[in-house]
Amino acid sequence: MIAILGTGKMGEALLSGLLRAGTRPDDVIATARRAERAETLRERYGVRVLSNTEAAKDADTLILAVKPQDMGALLAEIAPCVPAGTLVISAAAGITTAFVEARLGGEVPVVRVMSNTPVLVDEAMSVISAGTHAAEEHLRRTEDLLRPVGKVLRIPESQQDAATALSGSGPAYFFYLVEAMVDAGILLGMPRAAALDMVTQSIVGAAIMLRDSGEHPVILREAVTSPGGTTIAAIAELERHSVRAAFLAAIEAARDRGRQLASG
Ligand SMILES: NC(=O)C1=CN([C@@H]2O[C@H](COP(=O)(O)OP(=O)(O)OC[C@H]3O[C@@H](n4cnc5c(N)ncnc54)[C@H](O)[C@@H]3O)[C@@H](O)[C@H]2O)C=CC1
Ligand SMILES: O=C(O)[C@@H]1CCC=N1
Question: Domain 170-261 in CATH: superfamily?
Fold first, then answer.
């Protein structure tokens, strides 16, 4: 029995992924703060929606998907009811396995996960790290849960905040880029819908080439960049505006913010 505690955007994405991957609704429990939300989840997925403490008692795997700021309160609430040996998977940015272990007590196996919203289309990037009491078996169980909804990579916990900044938040940077490129299309007089289509198909095509060709991104970019041509004119402007440096600074800022999150 798997319980998802805090079924918001990420929790719901994981819930829908588990069901698409063949987990039966009877084997999943969700929890929600508002009654209205609980009703929506029951209707939409046919799962049981219980209190956090009931879910913690019934499930052998808990996925904690509340905001980092709400994690302390959630752990305090469930700590007295988590049976020994329950696998606790924390999906929150910035929350360390030590934070969860200290609040649950005992020798609870904790696995920290950072996934991303493409879990909704089975193309998530999930990175996982073991806490002090999590063994190979617990990492395998976590991988088995996440693999049907995308790619899973084991990383040292010391790299989790960096991974959050890179792939956890990553989809947002691409959506932002698409917005900016569509605006450029508008500036050049294109209809918005056509511009969005062109940019979306370009980003999908580029992503698939990157994933499937095995080529380095520099090689792929150079193949588009003709001497004296249009692409290099654009790249020169991107360099003039320090876009690469902006990405380095932005992702470093996201990493730093992740480090602050557990303290609220
Ligand atoms: N949205 C994203 O792209 C990603 C989010 N995350 C992580 O996932 C977690 C959730 O983020 P979102 O889904 O975006 O936030 P969200 O606000 O959509 O979901 C959190 C949900 O938890 C509920 N909640 C809070 N306290 C609760 C409690 N005590 N009992 C039951 N439910 C409770 C809230 O009502 C809300 O529905 C965060 O820790 C975030 O760091 C990780 C990767 C990507
Ligand atoms: O913005 C956030 O804090 C969360 C964590 C990774 C993606 N979204």
Answer: ProC C-terminal domain-like (1.10.3730.10)
